[in-house]
Amino acid sequence: MSDRPPVLMFDSGIGGLTVLREARVLMPDRPFVYVADDAAFPYGAWEEPALKTHILGLFADLLDRFKPEISVIACNTASTLVIEALRETFPGHPFVGTVPAIKPAAERTRSGLVSVLATPGTVKRQYTRDLIHQWASKCHVRLVGSNRLAGLAEIYMRDGFVDEAAVRAEIAPCFIEQDGRRTDIVVLACTHYPFIANRMRKTAPWPVDWLDPAEAIARRAHSLIADGKTAPCEDPLSNGPDRAVFTSGRTDFATRRLMQGFGLAIA
Ligand code: DGL
């Protein structure tokens, strides 16, 4: 185990685990603390000012408690709202954000029809609109806000059950046919969605490229801490197994089993 401070991985729920698993491949010797703000899940339904205040308050505690080397906001709904405010509020602490992979989608599409599948929060963010304006002005980008998919992924990861009819209905608006062209890329702009990507493939009306940015996020985090110039660890618990924190303070059996499967001890 490393004697360096942990990498803090943050999401509203279990979606950030899709980023954690990639991060571990690149940084096998690093300790990780996974924080699920389950008390506030789902973020997609929150009003912006309240969510911003909530996350900034939470981070004041998390940085103090875990003294991480870097924090990865493995949540599009949070990053698109608060990443700049986090950097301003906690200068000197590196934050890696997760924002919709609109640039790579625009570079890769052949039909020019791209859909961004996200929470209702991410879809309405100015940040998301700006990304489209900046990188995808030559494409037709459809924003699809889903109320249910993050919750469906939470259920799937705990209970192994997916309501396929619901998945089909939620992803259906992503698929457009226009002048003989079809949507060929769907951006998975919520970190929960890769967990149910197989069900999306199965229920999609035609094959598309499902863009999951998890590996790119992990690479970014790795690049920021790869130089080894960090302070020694001040947290005596960091030499144990990786830890998971649930802000509700309550974890049921299925959640504990899931965390165990990911090699995370509930802190
Ligand atoms: N995993 C989060 C994201 O990437 C969202 C889930 C939620 O609605 O809280 O956007």
Automatic annotation (TrEMBL):
The active site is at residues 75, 190. The keyword Magnesium does not apply. It comes from Manganibacter manganicus. It comes from the Bacteria. Belongs to the aspartate/glutamate racemases family. This is Glutamate racemase. InterPro entries: Asp/Glu/hydantoin_racemase (IPR015942), Asp/Glu_race (IPR001920), Asp/Glu_racemase_AS_1 (IPR018187), Asp/Glu_racemase_AS_2 (IPR033134), Glu_race (IPR004391). Its EC number is 5.1.1.3. GO terms for molecular function: glutamate racemase activity. The keyword Isomerase applies. GO terms for biological process: cell wall organization; peptidoglycan biosynthetic process; regulation of cell shape.
